[in-house]
Amino acid sequence: MSPELISVGALLVMFVVGTVLPINIGILAFVASFTIGTASLGLTEEEIFEGFPVGLFITIVGVTYLFAIARRNGTVDLLVAAGVRLVRGRVSLIPWVLFLLAGALTALGTFTPAAVAILVPIAMNFAFRYGINPLMTGMLVISGAHAGAFSPLAVSGALVLGMVRDTDLSVAPATLFFASFAVNVLLSVITFAALRNRTLPPVAEEESGDGATASARLTWHQGLTLASLAVLVVGALGFQLEIGVLALAAGAVLALLDTRRQEKAVDGISWHTLLLVAGMMTYIAMLEHAGIIDKISEHAAGFGTPLVVALLLCFTVAVTSAFASSTAILTAIIPIAVPLLLSSHLNAAGLIAALAVSTTIVDVSPFSTNGALVLSNVRGVDRGRFYRQIIGYTCGIVGFGPMVAWGALVLPWS
What we know:
Layout: H1 3-20, H2 25-39, H3 45-49, H4 54-72, H5 75-86, H6 94-107, H7 112-130, H8 134-147, H9 155-165, H10 173-195, H11 220-238, H12 243-257, H13 259-262, H14 271-289, H15 292-301, H16 306-321, H17 326-342, H18 348-360, H19 369-377, H20 383-409
């Protein structure tokens, strides 16, 4: 049996077992990484585990730790209350405010995971406080971040436009941006309509410390926490500093100044999510290192007529990006698509935009940074059940999103 079939088959088995049985899929992924990497792919231990997502690990630890502290001293309650006042009590509008805010941040140059990391903890606490569906709220934040992710100022937009600029193809920046924005708005409208009236059964949650809640009077602990959050935003967005390290530093200072209340703040770090995401991303990085991902994409590119190949490429990048880095997938797939565009009647702007959209919209997956942040910050629900709901939502996006992108951006101008 070929290494490609073995590795993909193991991935499917892990996915089924980890979803059906009460075992963390990250554990299975770590075991599979070592076993398949050494026995089937001929990799060394260093090559297998060099894909461990250190940056994502630091980000999730830092953000969840800082917001656990903010929740324990009542600062998050203040932010949620301020958001409700902003929309004059119409809490159903808050998810859309977060959508637009996330889109504005990424369109102005914020890396998508950084914008999501800043907004998701507040969004999840809002959903918990007011009984709004946390899945819908978290997904709108992620979709908002994706909606602005392909502006000429954004990281992903600059990457795609730069790669296309080195070829004989031409893609207008406005076409790429508005195509991504429109598809994400459409998906968000469908998500909002389908999930806004659905709720998850609540579960008991530990008290967040000494019962601090939002009050009319701002305490000095809350003021310092708000200042720390402001420093986090300015440092991450204005100076491109590592958001996880900033969050850990801010959390450490706040904990040292409030040791009695923050002694157990480390319990707020989502260790379950960290294990899940780190294991799966290590496995996928190993497959990328061995060239398995590239071979899958190349097989798709060599099948059928140009229109069919375009659709297969959209589905291929959607499936692989649900488990791997969207930036890496974009970097790999565009060079594969260029020969197809140069030798066919397909519209270059349409296919490039469709591939960009198909690659990023699946970052709602719990195995991606954005989906993992939603899973790690959710409150008041059973995490196992919520994980399965995210998986179900991701499967829907993987099955529906590429078809929408292809039908709207490729087919009409073919």
